[in-house]
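Suppose you are handed only these lines of text.
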Amino acid sequence: MPPRNPNSEEVFDFVVNKGNGIKGLVDAGIETVPDLYILPVEDRLEASEVVSVDSIPVIDASNLDDPKVTDSICEAASKWGFFQIINHGVPLQVLNNVREAAHKFHGLPYQEKNKYWVGNSPTHTVTLTTSFAPQAETALEWKDYLAFRFVPGDQESFALWPPVCREEVVEYMKRAEPVIWKLLKVLLKGINVKEIDKAREYTFLDTPVVYCNYYPRCPNPDLTAGVLPHSDIATLTLLLQDDSGGLYVRATDDHSWIHVPPIHGALVINIGDCLQIMSNDRYKSVEHRVVANASNNRVSVPIFANPGFNAAIGPLPEVLQTGEKPLYKQVIFSDYLKHHCSKKHEGKKTMDFARI
Ligand SMILES: O=C(O)CCC(=O)C(=O)O
Ligand SMILES: [Fe+2]
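From them, the structure of the protein bound to 2-oxoglutaric acid can be written out as follows.
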């Protein structure tokens, strides 16, 4: 347990133990940022660290058979680790519906939401929680989120998921999954992986997870983190944001940050640790962070394309066939996930778990 200001224990109890979340605290009428949420100065995002000269690529994904398009995807994944796609085929209405559903869920009364709070939920495939690892953090992240796990063959969970948003989340997943597979295939082809049989599919995408992230408006976002710098552990993340802004990714100079401007109808794609490991560093899983908003309640809906729990993750034979030295050992995805979740967000530190 990190040392905390004694006033913070009360706030911690309200937000985490009682399951009110950060939204519950904001709704209670706080006008300043509680100590529990104030970041040490060195962890805050300073305006001087944000560069505006660069921006991550925006790629028209309407023809993923066009070599010019596939080259630009692979190049973006190597250089930036992040890009946005437009004309991706997921209908705008599906995106609008899932964003609205996220607002509706987080807007439910305490009694309704508390049924899904971690520890209370009727199924491990849906949990509501706050911050990333509250027990391990000195300052908490200004975010609540409802996580859905899509376990293959699971017929039971849907009935137990919150009725206010489950159809919209399932529809979003259904429409987005083919896009994720298409992108994975393009990226894998770019590192010489031409055939993906059933057994191999399991190592690239098996149990995707959808978050309905909610960042309530914050009295002073500069003092806090919506999400601290981290990289995602999946192979790929597909993220829907709203028009609030606030997502920043690490620039190629490795110390400044670039804002990811909201684009109507676009999806943000980023490479996760597993694909960086599999590609032996050809593709980059890039750090990113979120700053909450002073006037808007921001929502975002990422889909994490997670491998199967028992999948062995390591540099792929196709990448090493020319005699290249592996930079990572083989790790089991569930061990990697467990390690990631046992600590607070700390940039790209999770990758050390697999590094040789
Ligand atoms: O809310 C966002 O824009 C990004 C959230 C994120 O990075 C995450 O949930 O891993
Ligand atoms: Fe992330």
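What can we learn from it? The first strand starts at residue 58 and ends at 60. The radius of gyration is 20 Å.
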